[in-house]
Amino acid sequence: MVHPHQTPYVTPHILHRQYAQASDSEFHSKLIGHDLEYFSQAGFDMDRIQLKRNAPVAQLYEDAIRNEGAIISSSGALINFSGKKTGRSPKDKRIVFEETSKDDIWWGSVNIKMDEHTFEINRERAIDYLNTRDNVYVFDGFAGWDPKYRIKVRVICARAYHALFMNNMLIRPTEEELASFGEPDFIIYNAGQFPANRFTKGMSSTTSVEINFKRMEMVILGTEYAGEMKKGVFSVMHYLQPVKFGQLSLHSSANVGMEKGDVTLFFGLSGTGKTTLSADPNRLLIGDDEHVWSDTGVFNIEGGCYAKCINLSQEKEPEIYNAIRFGSILENVVYNPVTRMPDYDDVSITENTRCAYPIEYIPNAKIPCMVDRQPSNIIMLTCDAFGVLPPVSKLSPDQASYHFLAGYTSKTPGTEDGVLEPIPTFSTCYSAPFIVLHPGRYAEMLADRMSKHNVSCWLINTGWTGGKFGTGKRCPLKYTRRIVDAVHSGELLDSKYETFGVFGLQIPTEVDGVPREVLNPSLAWTDKQAFEHEVRKLASMFQKAFKLYEGNVQESVRLAGPQVN
C-alpha cells in the first residue's frame, strides 16, 4: 500500500511534471520578476516564451539532452555539438561605426565597419528568432575578478549548451550578487541557430558576429560555435580596460608561484600552449586565456577555462583531463556510443575539440583569480611552423616590444574555420583577431609596465624542431615544461648565452634536461642549407609584417627584429 505522502517508484515522470517542473517555473519566474519590464521593452514576447535565468547546471543538462541531442560522457561532462561552425568566423566579425568609439577603434580587416541601421536590423532579427523558442536562457555574470574593474554581462540565448558554456566561462555571481545584479553593462543576443540575411547591407555571409560599443550589445547570427561569445566579451574588455579604466588587457594566461609568489604572464594565440603551460602543479593558476595587468596586480577576466582537447591524455595534462567532469562541456568531441568515453584522438568532426569548465575544477586554481603583485616574468609563446626559432630566447626590452607588436605564430588546425594545416601568421599583440584599439596603445602600456617593474621577458617556441612542418616534429612538451621551470626558478637568468644569427636572439647554451641540439635549432637540422633558407625566409616575413608598425616605434625597436642583408 502506498501512503498519501509517498510517491510510487513506477511513476517518476509524474513526480517530475508535478513537482520538479513546477518548481523550475516558480524558481525562474521569481528570479526574473524585477527584469520583466526590461525584456518586454527589448522586444521579447513575455506571454509566450519561458525565460530561465541562471538555471542550475543539472537543469541545463536535462534541457540539452532532451532538446539538443547532447549526451553525458563517462566522466560526467556534457558532450554537445556546435553544428556547421566548429571554430570562430573572424571574417564575419563587425564593429558598429558610431560616434562614441569610432576614433578609438583600429579599423581594418580585423575590425570591419558596420552601420548602426544594419545592427538594428540584425538585433531585431535575433530577438524575433528568440521569440519563436519555447525556452530562452538568460545568464547574468561578471567579466573581471577585480571588483574595481569588472563589468556585468548578460547572455540571452536559445540553447542550454550556450547557457552552460557561459555559466562556466563568466564569473558566477552569488545569490546575493544575482539578486542585486541590476542593469547589465554588456548584453549578448545569441541567435546563432538562425542565419543573418546575407543581402542586408554590409553582410558577407549568413554568419554575423557584431558588437555595438554605444549600446554595449553583441548580436550573433548564423553560428552556434560557443567561442564567439567568449571572445566577444574579451573584445569588450580589450576596449573598456584601456579606454575607461586605464588598465592593460592581455590575451594571456597567468599563474603564481606557491613559494615565492612570483607572477608569470604567458602571451600566445590558440594552440601555442597558454592553457597547457599555465596549468602547473607547482604553481597556482590565475587563469588560462584573458587577463588584465592593472596598477595593483593581475586579474583574470574569466571564471573558467576553454582548453583544447586534441590528443588530450591524463598522463600529459592531468589537471585538464581531471577537470572534465559534471558541469563541464565537451564541445564537438567524438565518443564511444557504447561506453560514452570521449575519444580525444578522433578529429573527424574538427581538430578544434574543446572543453569548457569552471576554473575551480583545476585543483590549484587561485580563487579569487587575482593577485596584488606585479609580474616577474613574461613568456611570449609562438608556434613556429618553419622550425627555425629556438625553444627559448631571452629578450631585451626592445626585442620584447618588437615581438609583442609582430606577434608571430602559426594558426593551428581547427582554431579558425577552414584552417586545416599550420599557416604562418603575424597576430599583433598576440591577439589580432580580438584587438580593438591600435596595437601601439597596448604596446606602449606594456613597455611602460615592464620598465617600471623590471620584468624579464622570454620568447618560447612550442612549434617544430629539426625541420619545418611536415618534416620536423613538434617540440616535446616535457622540454618546454623544463624550460618554463628554469624561467621560474631563476636558472635561466644565470645561464650562458650565445647569439642566434639573423634574429639576434640570445639563447642559453645549456638548460638541464634539454638536449643541446634542441636549444639551438641549427644543430637539430640535418640539412644545413635548408635551415639557412628557412631562417632567411621567416626573417623576411617578419620584416614585411613589421612595416605596418615601424613608423610608430623607436628606431631601437625596429632594429631589434631580424636583419637580412
The second-level CATH architecture of the largest domain is 3-Layer(aba) Sandwich
Overall body shape? globular
Largest sheet: 9 strands, mixed
**What is the β-strand count?**
28
- Given as residue ranges, the uncertain stretches (5+ residues, pLDDT < 50) are 4-15
Strand content: 15-25%
* Number of continuous helical runs: 16
Quick take:
Helix content is 30%, strand content 22%.
Task: Spell out the blueprint of helices and strands.
Elements: H1 12-32, H2 36-42, E1 50-53, H3 57-68, E2 71-72, E3 78-80, E4 93-96, E5 112-114, H4 116-130, E6 135-143, E7 151-157, H5 160-169, H6 175-179, E8 186-191, E9 208-212, E10 217-221, H7 227-245, E11 248-257, E12 263-267, H8 274-278, E13 283-287, E14 290-293, E15 298-300, E16 304-308, H9 318-322, E17 329-331, E18 354-358, E19 370-371, E20 377-382, E21 392-395, H10 397-406, E22 408-411, E23 423-426, H11 439-453, E24 456-461, E25 464-465, E26 473-474, H12 477-489, E27 497-500, E28 505-508, H13 516-519, H14 521-524, H15 528-546, H16 555-558
Parallel strand pairs: 1-6, 3-17, 4-5, 4-9, 7-8, 8-10, 12-20, 20-24
Antiparallel strand pairs: 2-3, 6-7, 9-10, 11-12, 11-13, 11-14, 14-15, 15-19, 16-18, 17-18, 21-24, 22-23, 25-26, 27-28
Helix pairs in contact: 3-5, 10-11
Please explain how this structure is put together.
With 565 residues, the protein is α/β, with parallel strands linked by helices. 30% of the residues lie in helices and 22% in strands. It contains 16 helices and 28 strands. Strands 11, 12, 13, 14, 15, 19, 20, 21 and 24 form a 9-stranded mixed β-sheet that branches. It has an 8-stranded mixed β-sheet with strand order 1-6-7-8-10-9-4-5, sandwiched between helices. A 5-stranded mixed β-sheet has the order 2-3-17-18-16, with helices on one face. Helix 3 runs antiparallel to helix 5 (160-169) and helix 10 runs antiparallel to helix 11 (439-453). It is globular, with a radius of gyration of 24 Å. This is Phosphoenolpyruvate carboxykinase (ATP). Keywords: ATP-binding, Decarboxylase, Gluconeogenesis, Lyase, Nucleotide-binding.
